[in-house]
Write a structure and sequence with these properties.
The protein is built from 20 helices and 13 strands. By secondary structure, the protein is an alpha+beta fold. It is globular, with a radius of gyration of 24 Å.
Length: 454
């Protein structure tokens, strides 16, 4: 494979990989691997981007070998990986569970700091990346990726903002400032990507950008506004609560649902959201067709809620869930809100089932006993299941309903997603907020939507 062949057709498309500052593939790789320098850079880039997307205590992040081999030739991937390990450039946790947990990677001690951008000129790798994107992206994904190309970054303002966070460390992942610089350079070079994860969430250079730096983003020379769903994960748990009887297989004629795991029942409901077949029993809304399928109508007909379930839904729709919980938590005064919120996620939504309830989980169970029983039911076989369900529901609403509608009604409007929130121009706030409210009302929720400048 000659370099001339590799460089043909790549001049018009800039593809950049982020690698450790002190790594030079062309200079360091042994003779038998030197021709695969871009493959080495891609493997290191995969670790760098995943470390930004997934914060872990030990710095290790999972990478699926099957996905790596979609870009790196399978005969090359293993010897390349083993050489990088021998040289101390990466470290690997080889423990894995088939179809559940991949091997985990992180940079070695001497390579976990600053990153630098390296341009990929290998046309075969670029084509493989394009083919993988085509296979995983829907029409709305491609629309969102096109909109990202309109973003510019005010580098002078970004530089001032970076100085505020310089020096802060990020576990084993190197300095926050170093990762921030990489994110800024990615946007400046217009090296955009959009990667849907297994939950449907879209990861982009914007989702990887520290929130303080969003103030430096511009579209058509205008700053951006952020529309955020308050208490998004608890709110979506409230949606599951409204379908508790269906999800636990207690309703007729769908009692056959008892034979299916709860995850499959959630998927059934989500498919109705995605295809716009789900309609809550609420006043008619513009551009929403009535639900005519008797099975779907049954799913959407909700049974009366118990008092604690009603109180829970009222609290999450008001956007005061964390404040309500912290009011009953005796140690709340010792921690700031962000730390308390993180602890809430760890113990209630993302945490393992506890033999003896304590802390925020105990407060939650006391205040909302019937909601807590649903939480335990969803975690019965896999403690990570609830968090996964909530992220899937979130992406179904944000990507498949709200952004799909933007694309259909206002295709020239700028919009970018940051999981449960949207970035839009100031002139589009009223329209975007109205669509968000309508789409959530369509599935029976009345969220608090917070609007603030980036």
């Amino acid at each position: 494979m000659s370099s001339n062949h590799h460089e043909q057709g790549t001049e018009s498309k800039a593809v950049w990989f982020w690698v450790p500052q002190d790594f030079n593939a062309s200079a360091q790789l042994p003779a038998n691997l030197k021709r695969y320098a871009h493959c080495a850079n891609y493997l290191l880039h995969s670790i760098a981007t995943q470390q930004v997307q997934r914060k872990t205590k030990d710095g290790f992040i999972p990478l699926r070998t099957k996905l790596l081999r979609q870009v790196i030739p399978w005969r090359v991937e293993k010897p390349l990986r083993e050489w990088l390990i021998e040289q101390g450039i990466i470290e690997i946790d080889r423990r894995f569970t088939l179809n559940r947990q991949s091997m985990r990677y992180r940079f070695g001690p001497g390579y976990a700091g600053q990153l630098r951008a390296v341009r990929c000129t290998d046309s075969r790798i670029i084509n493989r990346l394009d083919q993988r994107a085509d296979a995983t992206q829907t029409e709305v994904h491609r629309h969102l990726l096109k909109q990202l190309g309109r973003i510019r970054i005010d580098r002078r303002k970004a530089g001032r903002l970076v100085r505020r966070i310089r020096g802060k460390t990020d576990n084993q992942n190197g300095t926050t400032a170093g990762r921030t610089k990489a994110a800024i350079e990615t946007i400046s070079r217009q090296s955009w990507y959009l990667v849907p994860d297994s939950y449907g969430r879209c990861h982009t250079p914007i989702t990887n950008l520290p929130s303080v730096l969003r103030a430096a983003l511009r579209v058509d020379n205008q700053p951006l506004m952020q529309l955020d769903i308050a208490n998004a994960q608890p709110l979506l748990l409230g949606w599951l609560v409204k379908h508790k009887e269906y999800l636990t297989g207690e309703t007729e004629p769908l009692n056959r649902a008892k034979d299916r795991p709860i995850q499959s029942r959630v998927v059934s409901l989500m498919s109705q959201i995605t295809t716009n077949q789900y309609l809550y029993n609420s006043p008619p809304l513009p551009n929403v067709a009535p639900c005519s399928d008797p099975v779907l109508t049954h799913c959407c007909s909700l049974s009366p809620l118990k008092p604690d379930e009603q109180r829970f839904i009222s609290v999450v729709q008001s956007g005061q869930f964390y404040e309500y919980l912290f009011k009953h938590y005796p140690r709340a005064g010792r921690l700031d809100r962000d730390k308390l919120k993180a602890r809430c996620f760890e113990t209630i939504f993302h945490g393992r089932r506890q033999k003896a309830l304590r802390g925020l989980a105990r407060i939650f169970a006391e205040q909302f006993p019937n909601v807590w029983s649903l939480v335990l039911e969803t975690k019965k076989d896999d403690y990570k299941a609830l968090a996964g369900m909530l992220m899937r529901i979130e992406s179904s609403i944000i990507i498949d309903r709200i952004c799909q509608r933007f694309m259909a009604e206002q295709p020239e409007m700028f919009v970018a997603t940051i999981h449960d929130s949207l970035l839009v121009k100031p002139s589009d706030v009223a329209y975007a907020r109205g669509i968000m409210a309508q789409e959530f009302q369509t599935i029976g929720l009345l969220p608090t939507i917070r609007v603030e400048p980036c």
